[in-house]
């Protein structure tokens, strides 16, 4: 294993810039457009004869996506028209299949036969009257609108349009502005997008009350989107991409939309999912971006073109402003709001206008103040479209102001264990390699102290990564020893000792290569300064392993000491107390002299007497078992059953005795 390079160390610290830059949403690039077009073009389109409904949906998604990407369709027009026309006239036509068939005929530039159109329109009108789901209304109105565009149907009547609009108005959630999918169903962004598209289809034929209701629905949706984040509003949507695409399609067809920064949340979802793997996702991404770019207040995106600039040179900070599909935007008012160090956030430069660069599409620049020190900064940038009120884009960019990093006053000192200097070592002369210098012998009781200062240009500097790398010559293993700055942060110190090196790398290497590595995001290049090799004394022999076959020491177990028992007299006393009731019982029986003279003679009374006395005997036997074997959980259920039976038998016996005495009296 080789020594890590200084450039590799700089990659560790510059990863922060890369990660922060990738967090910014990037517009649609030509390479991404080409990859998406290849994915959609290569999607298999066979299967029209097997399942016409699925085939229609798949081919429509493919054709519509390629149309937005400005790529030629891969499915022959004649075959598309034939299958779509046959599907419209099928007796098993479903509403969704009819919708995709009509949409596909429109995309392919075909016309629908009147008989097929009549049957499909009848199915759509029936669904509008009977179904309570917004998705069915969306497919029905879309089907009829597509047939109307082809001249195959006159369209919906005013009464039908007013009825659908009134039902949509009842489904609006007052607080969020999101529409429910139906009565008693949850609200979703996908349903809201479908509802907006339905209102756009009905706008031409709806009456004045319905148009007023449609205006209220659109206003509620726009107001709700302005208050809440898209992620929270789309919590009930299973497919977030589909929901975003449907919502943007609907918003693009109504007269008012949310502000650009709110639309930017939807755009981020689409642009973050350009690496799609299914035809449905590709369609949703492209349809959503196409609808977004058609809006008058579409959001813009600001990206940094120059995340690294030199310090003390009045460098220009350049950004590009583009729409969601990557088209550069000219004539914007772009403003640098503030420049602040990433460490403390305290602004070092205030608000300043950025100028548009001539000859570069959508590129704007601002000159960095000459006194800006090297370091990592955050730049807040805002873009406003000409004659617009609200900003169309806002971005927090990361900027690294870099300077040449150098090491000053580098010293190598051998010290004893308590830190007293033993010898100051001479560094290799300029042009002489460190390998040619005499190695440094480091005794067990000594330590090598490396001290130096850092400068960025002519100013003292503090670097993010300052380490001494120790590389074993034989094994190739390496370890890092960090260099710590002092209180003034003008001097760094690293201490190397034989014991510390052996603790990290073991004892198999005795010769090591030492290199000082310095890396910082504010450095235009990392530093790598080699030292003479380090020689460690030979370590003593390792203790031999104990043989495993010898007898092991005897294991002596210590058991718990038994508890102290009470005196014998106490035990006898309590035993007597427990036996006393039995003695009393036997004595009472002897005095009473029990006999069978009073035993009942009738059948019912005999059974009752037998059950009562037998129950008592069984209960006494259960007590004995509880004392010897059973626990409380096992005893209580049986005791309950025996007690209930004994009580019933005793009650019957006493009732019979009372009746017999009454008769005798």
From TrEMBL:
Do the record's keywords include Chloroplast? no
Q: How does it sit in the membrane?
A: Multi-pass membrane protein
GO cellular component labels: oligosaccharyltransferase complex
Query: May I ask which residue range the UniProt record assigns to the signal sequence?
Result: 1-23
Q: Could you provide one GO biological process annotation from this protein's UniProt record?
A: protein N-linked glycosylation
Keywords for this protein: Endoplasmic reticulum, Membrane, Signal, Transmembrane, Transmembrane helix
Transmembrane region(s): 568-589, 610-630, 636-654
User: What compartments host this protein?
Assistant: Endoplasmic reticulum membrane
Q: In which pathway does it act?
A: Protein modification; protein glycosylation
Where the record annotates domain Ribophorin II C-terminal, the positions are 559-661
Q: Can you tell which superkingdom this protein's organism belongs to?
A: Eukaryota
Question: Where does the protein principally reside?
Answer: endoplasmic reticulum
Q: Which residues does the UniProt record annotate as the domain Ribophorin II N-terminal?
A: 56-293
Q: Does this UniProt record's set of keywords contain Endoplasmic reticulum?
A: yes
Say what the protein does.
Answer: Subunit of the oligosaccharyl transferase (OST) complex that catalyzes the initial transfer of a defined glycan (Glc(3)Man(9)GlcNAc(2) in eukaryotes) from the lipid carrier dolichol-pyrophosphate to an asparagine residue within an Asn-X-Ser/Thr consensus motif in nascent polypeptide chains, the first step in protein N-glycosylation. N-glycosylation occurs cotranslationally and the complex associates with the Sec61 complex at the channel-forming translocon complex that mediates protein translocation across the endoplasmic reticulum (ER). All subunits are required for a maximal enzyme activity.
- Subunit annotation: Component of the oligosaccharyltransferase (OST) complex.
PANTHER family recorded: DOLICHYL-DIPHOSPHOOLIGOSACCHARIDE--PROTEIN GLYCOSYLTRANSFERASE SUBUNIT 2 (PTHR12640:SF0), RIBOPHORIN II (PTHR12640)
Family classification: Belongs to the SWP1 family.
In its UniProt entry, what is this protein called? Answer: Dolichyl-diphosphooligosaccharide--protein glycosyltransferase subunit 2
């Amino acid at each position: 294993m080789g020594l890590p390079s200084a450039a590799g160390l700089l990659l560790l610290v510059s990863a922060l810039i890369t990660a922060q830059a990738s967090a910014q949403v990037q517009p649609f690039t030509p390479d991404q457009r080409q990859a998406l077009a290849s994915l959609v073009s290569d999607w298999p389109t066979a299967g029209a004869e097997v399942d016409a409904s699925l085939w229609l949906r798949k081919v429509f998604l493919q054709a519509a996506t390629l149309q937005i990407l400005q790529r030629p369709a891969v499915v022959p027009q004649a075959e598309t028209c034939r299958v779509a026309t046959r599907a419209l006239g099928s007796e098993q036509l479903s509403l969704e299949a009819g919708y995709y068939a009509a949409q596909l005929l429109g995309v392919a530039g075909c016309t629908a036969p009147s008989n097929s159109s009549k049957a499909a329109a009848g199915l759509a009108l029936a669904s509008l009257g009977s179904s309570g789901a917004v998705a069915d209304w969306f497919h029905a109105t879309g089907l009829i609108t597509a047939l109307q565009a082809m001249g195959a149907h006159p369209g919906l009547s005013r009464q039908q349009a007013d009825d659908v609009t009134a039902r949509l108005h009842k489904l609006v959630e007052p607080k969020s502005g999101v529409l429910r999918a139906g009565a008693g169903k949850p609200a979703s962004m996908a349903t809201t997008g479908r509802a907006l598209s339905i209102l756009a289809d009905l706008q031409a034929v709806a009456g004045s009350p319905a148009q007023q209701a449609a205006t209220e629905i659109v206003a509620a949706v726009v107001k709700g989107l302005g208050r809440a984040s898209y992620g929270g509003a789309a919590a009930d949507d299973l497919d977030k991409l589909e929901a975003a695409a449907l919502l943007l399609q609907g918003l693009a067809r109504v007269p008012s939309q949310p502000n650009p920064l709110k639309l930017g949340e939807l755009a981020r979802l689409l642009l973050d999912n350009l690496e799609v793997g299914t035809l449905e996702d590709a369609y949703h991404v492209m349809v959503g971006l196409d609808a977004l770019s058609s809006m008058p207040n579409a959001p813009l995106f600001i990206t940094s073109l120059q995340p690294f600039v030199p310090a003390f040179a009045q460098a220009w900070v350049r950004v590009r402003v583009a729409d969601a599909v990557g088209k550069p935007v000219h004539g914007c008012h772009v403003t640098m709001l503030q420049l602040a160090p990433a460490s403390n956030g305290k602004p070092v430069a205030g608000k300043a206008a950025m100028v548009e660069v001539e000859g570069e599409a959508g590129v704007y620049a601002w000159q960095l103040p000459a006194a800006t020190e090297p370091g990592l900064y955050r730049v807040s940038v805002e873009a406003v479209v000409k004659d617009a009120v609200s900003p169309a884009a806002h971005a927090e960019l990361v900027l690294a102001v870099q300077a040449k990093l150098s090491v000053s006053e580098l010293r190598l000192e051998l010290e004893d264990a308590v830190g007293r200097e033993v010898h100051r070592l001479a560094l290799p002369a300029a042009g002489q390699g460190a390998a040619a210098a005499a190695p440094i012998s480091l005794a067990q009781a000594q330590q090598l102290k490396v001290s130096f200062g850092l400068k960025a240009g002519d100013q003292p500097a503090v670097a993010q990564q300052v380490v001494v790398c120790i590389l074993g010559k034989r094994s190739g293993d390496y370890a890092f020893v960090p260099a710590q700055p002092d209180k003034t942060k003008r001097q760094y110190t690293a201490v190397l000792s034989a014991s510390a090196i052996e603790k990290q790398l073991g004892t198999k290497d005795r010769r090591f290569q030492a290199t000082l590595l310095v890396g910082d995001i504010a450095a235009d290049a990392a530093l790598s300064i080699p030292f003479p090799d380090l020689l460690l004394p030979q370590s003593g022999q390792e203790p031999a392993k104990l043989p495993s076959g010898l007898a092991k020491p005897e294991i002596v177990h210590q058991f718990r000491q038994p508890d102290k028992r009470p005196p014998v007299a106490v035990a006898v006393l309590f035993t007597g107390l427990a036996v006393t009731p039995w003695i009393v019982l036997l004595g009472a029986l002897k005095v009473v002299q029990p006999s069978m003279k009073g035993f009942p003679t009738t059948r019912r009374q005999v059974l009752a007497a037998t059950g009562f006395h037998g129950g008592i005997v069984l209960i006494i036997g259960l007590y004995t078992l509880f004392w010897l074997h059973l626990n409380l959980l096992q005893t209580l259920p049986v005791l309950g059953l025996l007690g209930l039976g004994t009580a019933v038998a005793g009650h019957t016996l006493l009732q019979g005795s009372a009746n017999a005495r009454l008769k005798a009296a």
